[in-house]
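User: Can you fold this complex?
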Amino acid sequence: MTETHTTCPYCGVGCGVIAKPDGTGGAVISGDTAHPANFGRLCSKGAALGETLGLEGRLLHPTVDGVQQSWDATLDLVAKRFSSTIAEYGPDSVAFYVSGQLLTEDYYVANKLMKGFIGSANIDTNSRLCMASSVAGHKRAFGTDTVPGTYEDLEEADLILLVGSNLAWCHPVLHQRIMAAKESRGTQVVTLDPRRTATSDTADQHLGLRSGTDITFFNGLLAYLHAKGALDQAYLNSHVSSVDDVLAHVAPFSVAHVAEVCGLPPTEVDRLYAAFARTERVVTIYSQGINQAADGTDRVNAILNCHLATGRIGRPGMGPFSVTGQPNAMGGREVGGLANMLAAHLDIENIAHRDSVRAFWDAPRMPDAQGHKAVDMFDACASGEIKALWIMCTNPAVSMPRADAVADAISACDFTVVSDIMERTDTTARADVLLPATGWGEKDGTVTNSERRISRQRAFLPAPGEARHDWAIVSDVARRMGFAGFDYETPAEIFREYAALTGIAAQLGKDLSIAGLADLSGSDYDAMAPVQWPVPADGPVGGRFFADGGFYTPDRRARMLAVSQTALPEPDAAYPFTLNTGRVRDHWHTMTRTATSTTLSQHIAEPFVEVHPQDAETLALGDATLARIESPHGMLVARVKVTDRTARGSVFVPMHWTGQWTARGRVDAVVDARRDPVSGQPALKSSRVSLAPFEPRWYAFGISAREPSPDCAYWAKAKVPGGWRIEMAGAQDEADWTAFANRTFDLDGHTPISVTDAARGEARLAYLGEGRAQAALFVSREPVQAARAYLSGALGAGQDAATLLAGRPGRDRPEPGATVCACFNVGVNTISAAILEGGLASVEDVGAALQAGTNCGSCRPEIASLIAQAPTRMAAE
Ligand code: SF4
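Assistant: Here's the predicted assembly.
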């Protein structure tokens, strides 16, 4: 088997992956020990990439109005409709909505077409939802959107502050690198998050600050550092502006004031402030908890202020560190995928920048102002201002705030094109034209990770069906629209052109230069090793920024900014709860790829809502019942998880589930569209919602070899080995459970073995074929108690009807429980029992006994948490 060195397509860590095709369309996946992002490590999602390569559900041919068409006819139509719309209504009547999962070459060509040839800046990206506030904060403070540090800093720091970042689940390999440093050199780790997470379980200190109070916390830290004489006066004198104004602004933020506003014990605030003051090597990592807020840009600047004031930036083991959610969010912002930027960090509103890009591209028309950012773009579709929309590689009908309204806007747009790898998504269902794109394993190009490292994604599988690369599709449409400059044959040509453009940007005083790569031959590009920018034509490659100042403002000095927190929307009687949203460990975005993996689907199999125990008691919400969460924008239903991990008055719901996997699990349907006024990034973590029991007439759990077709008020399905598992709940009584199961599991004419208790509203049905389980259904008035992990492995296995109907294995085979370790398929019950019965006291002990946690390591925080809970469970038993 030939090895291909490529890059993981999920988070912004950008791990190197080695893929060995197996000759049957799949591949064996391992971590690349030579890649500087991960040195061979992979998390559970990366390790399961081989399971996501199948062609089931792939979009393989162009379609127009649901009918397969030739590429020629389809691209002619797309070009004609975009051209005629522009001719009639002007360039701003069309838009592209693109994605942090496009490769840099795809992004570059889409941006060139829209900004240089169509003449509009109406191209924005789903990275707007992810890190636009970091971009804006960087630009305000540094004069450039530049992450100053490198991943080595995480291993060289003595104190790491994680703010609004569940790194253990969202950037697991970086978390593993930090945990290894903690083990070897005693790095102190502190988490700052309104919610207790798997990351805070591994920290030395957790500060569960009140939602929305981050700026107060960092203003207080700056005031403390000033009061204790911990500022770097020499650095400030030489390299930073606005210092006195900002110090005067933060002076009133005493520890007592911060503690009161943030809802923290003063001693805990003081403890962290003192640690920050005395520790030279400090890294502050932040992500969506900072960025996804109505004052996200100010939050970023509150953090940057503290690092600038102490001169702790750009030196080993210190600096602010924005970690990006997507594999190529960084590449997108580098080539101008945001509606407010040109390529190569150049600015739309700057005439010299615009003219340089115009000349470089030989562009017929360029916009002189920003285009519509994501939320405004879909509002403009709804209002009819945008009449032709092209969505590439993303699923906004699920992921945008007010997702129901966005779905309607996509439907309402006169002409909508979607390029995707999957045929059935919530967004493709609303498009006029579907264009089959190549996916991971088939694509060829580059991505940039959170530390500015450019890595190659290389193809190791052929393009299936008629799928084509995104850059090729866009170039073909551009040519059909009559534009020159899109005659690319290979991604290497596009990369060279982009690299040459960064050389021009460098002459205009920009830091983003990869001009040293502008002459790569095709074979050099094929062989390109991961490289951190800058890569100038002459001079040092990669490394850190700003240790000696040299900022990209007109006076080369950084700016500190006086910032204040923006009040969150007031609770009211109708919507008394704050809704927080985020990721789970084993799913990615809208699950189009990870849900195809049976391994990844077993960690968390349906959408849930975390509710504080006192709120649950007040509302009579029992654990494992269902809750209805509503806002003025929509409604969702999710499984109740009673936990003190979330604060009173707050609830947490994961972001991933779509209409393909649940009846009502799309959390962004209820999220409002408040956004940061500077960055335009939506405040996805603080919507006002109501919470109430969803009171079905019945609950059900089922397994089926055939894909279920549920018709009931609530359902959530997931893949399991040999078939499917499904949770259901109904608003009306069912008269005949056999008829219901036959319909749902496509088993017309089959007769199950069944046990029913009509008085108690219970039914159990088992379908066996030649002694093997084909399907089973368990119905109850209360949430169904069944051994789900056992049943999820029962399909196709030899079974006797009595065991299957019991819904749990025999006494000799304990129910493993929900998967904790995805690599070795070890469940929570198995681990808990081993801890209690074997007296296991460490994650290593559990690994030695069960293998759990010994491969990718993503589950180690959960195992540590189970060990920590063991004394409580022993006391309870
Ligand atoms: Fe992929 Fe996991 Fe690495 Fe992120 S941490 S790039 S998801 S393997």
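Residues 8, 10-11, 13-15, 38, 42-43, 45-46, 171-173 surround iron/sulfur cluster (CB under 6 Å). The chain has a mean pLDDT of 95.
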